Inverse folding.
């Protein structure tokens, strides 16, 4: 069974930093691209970033470029999202998702990030 | 930038009825990269349909997807109580790489 378990969320002040982690299991992790998707009440579902299976390419939504860094450790079946210069509008539930042919076929339960202004 | 617009915003129906949800793209979308998700309160979204018309693993056959180009449809043939949720369409393309519609809430009438 595919499982994705996020951790690291919490309350942070605007301008601060946070690191999210995602532990993956139940599939051959190093053969899949992965992504983060977030959901805020006002803005709905929003793609944040994606990374290829070997970390050869990483992509970011425009509003995250230069602030967020997405990485993976295939030896540990883990993903990491380093978020810097956080803004109030980054407040959302962040989901770790598995990518397959352009769609998200498995989702974690999500982790809440709250940025206070 | 590809924008996905879903309609209606809210759909009120009774169990047993059929539902038709629309997703319209501002530019043509490759059908291979159009998906639908279901989200219930307090839960993560769940993949229903990928490549516009292929059901994901474990999805009942009352769910079907169709469409091409800029117009896509999710059809639920006979609503069950557990089908009342929010539905999102999503595309994979170039700009932005992935985008979602704003969602259609399917509520019990």
């Amino acid at each position: 069974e595919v499982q994705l378990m996020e951790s690291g969320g919490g309350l942070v002040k605007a301008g601060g930093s946070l690191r999210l982690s995602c532990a993956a299991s139940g599939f051959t992790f190093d053969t899949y691209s992965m992504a983060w998707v977030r959901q805020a009440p006002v803005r709905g579902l929003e793609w944040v970033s994606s990374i290829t299976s070997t970390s050869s390419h990483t992509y970011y939504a425009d509003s995250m470029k230069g602030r967020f860094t997405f990485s993976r450790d295939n030896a540990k079946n883990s993903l990491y999202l380093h978020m810097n210069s956080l803004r109030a509008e980054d407040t959302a539930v962040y989901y770790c998702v598995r990518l397959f042919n352009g769609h998200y076929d498995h989702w974690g339960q999500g982790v809440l990030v709250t940025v206070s202004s | 930038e590809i924008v996905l617009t879903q309609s209606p915003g809210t759909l009120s129906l009774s169990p047993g009825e059929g539902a038709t949800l629309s997703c319209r793209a501002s530019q043509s979308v490759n059908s291979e990269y159009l998906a639908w998700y279901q989200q219930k309160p307090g839960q993560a979204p769940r993949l229903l349909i990928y490549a516009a018309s292929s059901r994901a693993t474990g999805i009942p056959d009352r769910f079907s997807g169709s469409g091409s180009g800029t117009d896509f449809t999710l059809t639920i043939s006979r609503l069950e109580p557990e089908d009342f949720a929010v539905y999102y369409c999503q595309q994979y393309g170039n700009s932005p790489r992935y985008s979602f519609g704003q969602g259609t809430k399917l509520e019990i009438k």
Summary: DSSP finds no helices and eleven strands in chain A. Residues 2 and 26 of chain A are 4 Å apart (CA to CA).
